[in-house]
Amino acid sequence: MQNVSQEQAADFMPLARAEKTRFWRDGRFHSMECLTATFLTHEFAPHAHDTLSIGAIESGSQIATIRGARESSGPGDLYLINPGEIHDGAPAGGGYRYRMIYPDMALFREILEEVTGRSFHGTPAFGRQILHDQPLADAFLKAHRMLEEGAGALETGQGMYMVLAAMFQRHGSSIIVPVDTAERSAVRRTRDYLMENFASDIGLEELAAVAGLSRAHLIRAFRKEFHITPHAFLTDIRIRKARRMLRSGAPPAEVALECGFADQPHFTRHFKARTGLTPGQYRAG
């Protein structure tokens, strides 16, 4: 049998493992959500987060669609996904193992102001969502492992703090608001209507009336703007609301009803498709 290095061996580790996840919230960083997971077959449905989504792959590879572009990523690559950015993900080949954090904007802005010594008046954002930066990816994975292992408070806090600051210094910017058009105004009006009425059984004709567009035009324009259909967007908004309710301790059955799902199994299926976790796992994290 041919000898392989430790690094090469790590690339094959997902093949020998079962799918598993570990999810927790870290009180040192505003109760930041943290995830480590091994996925062999699980495919994420298109979804977005209310927070930043930052992560790196330890071994294996993933294929993701972000901003309508499909990209493959592996060790050395970083995920730097802005709040509200629609994306999905699926294993490539033998699966992958990765680590993610979901820092809220207040935490990120706080770190930036402390590092720069001045107020940050813009909205922190990343211009590229998947990029290769081996040293920073390695530093992130090391800091994430220290969080998971519960190392000393100073060591863990300093490690992740410095990584987050470096990420923005190397790859960050402020959000640039795109030029408005009549079509963009129509689909954003539709988006706002979905967000305000997510628990209702909204029909396509109702949405088209809100937008002032035909049904076909609305679907086409909505996909162009958000890279997702109105129905998929509505489902994702319901899941994002469900996450907030579960974090506050609400039972899954109540959350399913409040968020407009037909029943709890329907809710659980959609929740896991977008988070990799069951509602119970997420609530207990």
Please explain how this structure is put together.
- The chain contains eleven helices and ten strands.
- It is an alpha+beta fold and 285 residues long.
- The longest helix has 19 residues, at 153-171.
- It starts with 5 loop residues before the first helix and ends with a helix.
- Residues 1-16 have low confidence and may be disordered.
Shape call: globular
Structural class: alpha+beta
The CATH H-level superfamily of the largest domain is Jelly Rolls
Please describe the biggest sheet, giving its number of strands, its sense, and whether it closes into a barrel.
8 strands, antiparallel
Number of domains: 2
Low-confidence stretches: 1-16
Overall pLDDT score: 87
Total number of beta strands:
10
User: Would you give the CATH topology of the largest domain?
Assistant: Jelly Rolls
Short structural summary:
By secondary structure, the chain is of the alpha+beta class.
